[in-house]
Write a structure and sequence with these properties.
The structure is a homodimer. Chain A is of the alpha+beta class. The first copy, chain A, has helices at residues 28-39, 91-98, 139-149, 163-166, 192-198, 219-235, 244-248, 253-259, 276-279, 281-292, 327-333, 342-355, 359-371, 380-392, 395-401, 403-411, 433-441, 454-459, 473-489, 495-501, 503-517, 524-544, 556-559, 573-578; strands spanning 3-8, 13-18, 53-57, 70-76, 83-89, 101-107, 117-122, 125-130, 156-160, 174-177, 183-187, 201-207, 313-314, 320-322, 418-419, 422-423. Among the domains of chain A are: 3-207, Aldehyde Ferredoxin Oxidoreductase,  A, domain 1 (4-Layer Sandwich), CATH 3.60.9; 250-297 and 310-408, Aldehyde Ferredoxin Oxidoreductase Protein, subunit A, domain 2, CATH 1.10.569.10. Chain A is globular, with a radius of gyration of 22 Å. At the A-B interface, helix 5, helix 15 and helix 16 of A face helix 5, helix 15 and helix 16 of B.
């Protein structure tokens, strides 16, 4: 019943194909990485006609499984040159799943620059529409109108790229509508927005009107599983209603990481930011309360989420400024840029949403630019002007829009905190060794979401480990395997907090998936599937030319001591190379 | 007797050391690549404190051996991230050799940006002088005055970086004075000027007053060798007085390559340029004759050269415009930028000399920028403005100054004709397969001088091969081994035209070297030494993370047919991988 939709942008044709039998029980990241591995030449140019952009909802996306509306987006990354999977929470993938579409493969490229096009997918089929009129705009000025044209947010969700993707910039993400129809949810990392831009595909509107329910092979097993997961999520302190994530959002981490000395500050010059409390999740909650006049709890980004971690920041007059200020974005523009003003951070976040940019890469890029003398850390007004230059595609904007490594090249900066060309997220490897291992070996470049060892190293989830202990080889491997499985289910990674601590919750996830697919998977299959995903990704990267030399943290971290712990990166190369050996 | 001078820019100290016994018979490229391989961590940042810049004159530099005043410069390349050796003809290395200095190793880096310094080397020792007053200037405004301060061009030669090196740009070369004291001779490729800039070293003045002759172990063998070489050079049609190089300079190649359909035009979109005859070596000769009022033959760039291929282009009033318009520079700004005006090409060449830029990389970069919509092919006035922007270090200038690959990233261009991040020189691989093999496997990135197979493929030197025949595996290997040997002798590579055709000439080169060093080398040692050099370089690059995936031509050349032959790059990957396997 499930189909694969192949979209050819060279001649603007689209056709449905049956899912190849080898992929019968693959979805989400497993399926995007399979298709990229099997169909994209690893040495092709990521902005050329032989790259592909693949979308796939997870095993249980579109069902009643809680917090499962993730869409995986894959391709060869314009930022790293390696394989990429980035995922987002949105109703878009849910509608795709309900239409029986397990994957959309966007391939080819107009032979000449032929302007932009959009795709409409519904129960009747697929159509192409000219999209030049949609280009050059802020996403908030374009996406709601586009949704309205096709029946409004109750009927459709939208996937779109912003001006950064139109300009094929390496920091361009892929944007999706949230539960309220806002263009705020991102498969942000790795520049897949640029890959779509290179194909002339501006937007994909999905309308699932009239679609049947997602078929479930073993309803009893599925229901048993989803109830176990829901119970775990509802119980755990991090994921329960009015728990840490629902009250303070992911930005609850600011004070925690600052306390641990692991909050990278001013381009990774320190692990403590003196302005941390002013930008923390608690400050967002307090600020919103003051401006709105009541407690403002967070909301689900996508249908069916029972965690609800997505926040909204409000202006002084109580009106909405931006959604969502994730911990990573808060840190990227805050601590890492030396900015302690939430209104300025919110504006930078908003601009990235408007232009279709990855906040982590852009915050990291601004910090490298400050290191290179382009602006001064802490000057939020100037930072805002710089992000506007990206949208204007000035020469400086083109440098910044292509990320931290290109910016480092342009300005002769040696302190670029990246792995494989992707800027590091909000956890300092010299203070938290396991996450440094994840950054080093991740197939995605520096990426916390590929193996969130912060859970045991900082949060005490699934036990408590010393973050400064460099023996994290097995931890890094196991977390990446488990994550690759979760990224294939369609669940948000945040279920991990609960299911790592509550075993029945993890069993529930496996039962849900086995129930939908009709497989006999048990907990023993989690690592097997995760390893299968990683093996495909590692093989792609090997073919693309990556070696152990690419699994290294930047040189300065080996020599420069990080306050307050004054440690350097001291995990032996042999241990890094042992993770996936 | 020979010494190694170690210059530490962290604390500005210098000391002489004996040459390690393992290096007793190494010089030129063999010695720079040995020191870089043995002392520079392959994964270090090329602009960081652990990179080193190494200078070494060749085996016979400083002797009476004809055309032997080359200086090798080595380091980890800021452009490619791999090992780099670039060499130039200049009296500078000759003076170094006469002072008994076999190598200068510049290492370390000021801990804070401490401005710029210069080094004075003479028979009494080494001194550091502040050089901030020398920065920000055109090299023609700075170098002659600096030489004059130390006794003038009869006493000293100067090595310097221009503003591009000060700004640590990837296209920054290392400049040396020519025989007339002009700042025109470049170890241009790979950005070693940026590596010097990162160390705060602006210039090195060498005064060999009072130095003894370079010691020669076996004077009779040496004299026998140099006479054989001189005879071959004086006899061969390409190298003899008023022969091809002396009359028309290297730009004699323009018409020849155009005829062969191998002259890359407008960013490698065609192998023929309709304006070729207007920019050819013959046009330079004719233009000079008209403007100066007589035949103007070319001159030696460095003392002791009996080929004399270095030209000067004159303005309408007969005054000097620039020296030298090499074939590569002529092509880079001419055919590859669609410019057919020699005065505009001369101005672009002059500006690169003034700012310390590699003409090949900058011409290639301008072509990629035209492809990206920055300017229009053929608009020479705009091209001149763009190169001026590099000196001004505007954001656009910083993009362009960092070369073709960074420019391609900034402007989303997929057609970047590079290998390992270095732009291709003036021979189209789809029309001349052997040079494409050289580009692919060279340890230096795309580089014609690492194995000039153009000699047999186009010029009929050492036999005549079909350029379109893709079976060039052995040719590519043998030429690179022979070249690595020649690059270690201190001879200019242009002796190859004569010695490949006249066996006694090649014997003479080996006898010269064996005579100086007191070794028993024969012709059988040429490939052995060449292989030893390449093995060091290949090992460095392997440690730096290069794989077979980096030994590939850009994707577009595999698919896009090149007029007029309409061929694609069709050398099988397995053959490429067999060159050094």
């Amino acid at each position: 019943m499930d189909r694969l939709l192949r979209v050819n942008m060279t001649d603007r044709t689209a056709k449905f194909e049956p899912i190849p039998s080898a992929y019968a029980s693959r979805a989400g990241r497993w399926l995007t990485s399979s298709l990229v591995h099997d169909e994209v030449p690893a040495t092709c140019h990521p902005l050329g006609p032989r790259n592909k952009v693949v979308f796939s909802p997870g095993f249980v996306t579109g069902t009643a499984a809680p917090t499962s509306s993730r869409i995986s987006v894959g391709g060869k990354s314009p930022l790293t040159g390696g394989i990429k999977e980035a995922n987002a929470g949105t109703g878009w993938g849910r509608r795709l799943a309900r239409l029986g579409i397990r994957a959309v493969v966007v391939e080819g490229q107009p032979e000449r620059d032929g302007g932009f096009w959009m795709l409409k997918i519904d129960a009747k089929g697929v159509s192409f529409e000219p999209a030049d009129a949609l280009t050059g705009k802020k996403l908030s000025e374009m996406v709601p109108g586009l949704a309205a044209r096709y029946g409004g947010r109750d009927k459709v969700d939208v996937c779109a790229i912003g001006v950064a993707g139109e300009h094929k910039m390496g920091a361009a993400g892929v944007c999706f509508t949230d539960r309220e129809g806002r263009a705020t949810r991102y498969a942000g990392r790795g520049g897949l927005g640029a890959a779509l831009g290179s194909k002339g595909l501006k937007a994909i509107v999905v309308d699932d009107s009239g679609a049947a329910e997602v078929p479930i092979a073993d309803k009893a097993k599925f229901d048993q599983g989803r109830k176990k997961l829901a119970a775990a999520l509802g119980e755990h302190a991090i994921t329960k209603p009015k728990g840490a994530l629902n009250a303070y959002g992911t930005a609850v981490l600011v004070n925690i990481l600052n306390e641990a000395g692991g909050l990278p500050t001013r381009n990774f010059r320190s692990g403590r930011f003196e302005g941390a409390t002013k930008i923390a999740g608690e400050a967002i909650f307090a600020g919103n309360k003051e401006r709105v006049g009541k407690d403002v709890y967070n909301h689900p980004c996508s249908p069916g989420c029972i965690i609800g971690c997505s926040n909204t920041w409000h202006k002084r007059d109580g009106s909405e400024h931006t959604s969502c200020i994730e911990y990573e974005s808060d840190w990227a523009f805050g601590a890492n840029c030396g900015i302690d003003d939430l209104d300025q951070i919110a504006e930078l976040n908003l601009l990235c949403n408007e232009y279709g940019l990855d906040t982590i890469e852009i915050g990291g890029t601004l910090a490298v630019a400050a290191e290179g003398g382009v602006w001064k850390f802490g000057d939020g007004k100037r930072a805002i002007e710089l992000v506007r230059e990206i949208a204007d595609a000035t020469p400086l904007g083109r440098i910044l829009g292509n990320g931290a490594l290109v910016t480092g090249r342009a300005f002769g900066v040696t302190r670029v905190p990246h792995v494989k060309g992707q800027n590091m997220p909000a956890y300092e490897p010299r203070a938290i060794k396991g996450i440094g291992m994840t950054y080093a070996v991740s197939t995605m470049g520096a990426d916390h979401t590929s193996g969130y060892t912060i859970a045991p190293e900082i949060l005490g989830v699934s036990g408590k480990l010393d973050p400064l202990n460099p023996q994290k080889t097995d931890l890094a491997r196991n977390f990446q395997y488990a994550t690759a499985f979760i990224d294939s289910t369609g669940h948000c990674l945040f279920i991990a907090f609960a299911i790592l601590d509550i075993a029945s919750g993890f069993e529930g996830v496996v039962e849900e998936c086995a129930g939908v697919l009709g497989t006999d998977w048990t907990m023993n299959d989690v690592a097997r599937i995760g390893k299968a995903v990683l093996d495909l990704e590692l093989d792609f990267n090997r073919q693309a030319g990556f070696t152990a030399a690419d699994d290294r943290l930047p040189e300065f971290m080996l020599h420069e001591k990080l306050p307050p712990h004054d440690g350097v990166w001291d995990v032996p190369d042999e241990e890094i190379d042992r993770v996936f050996d």
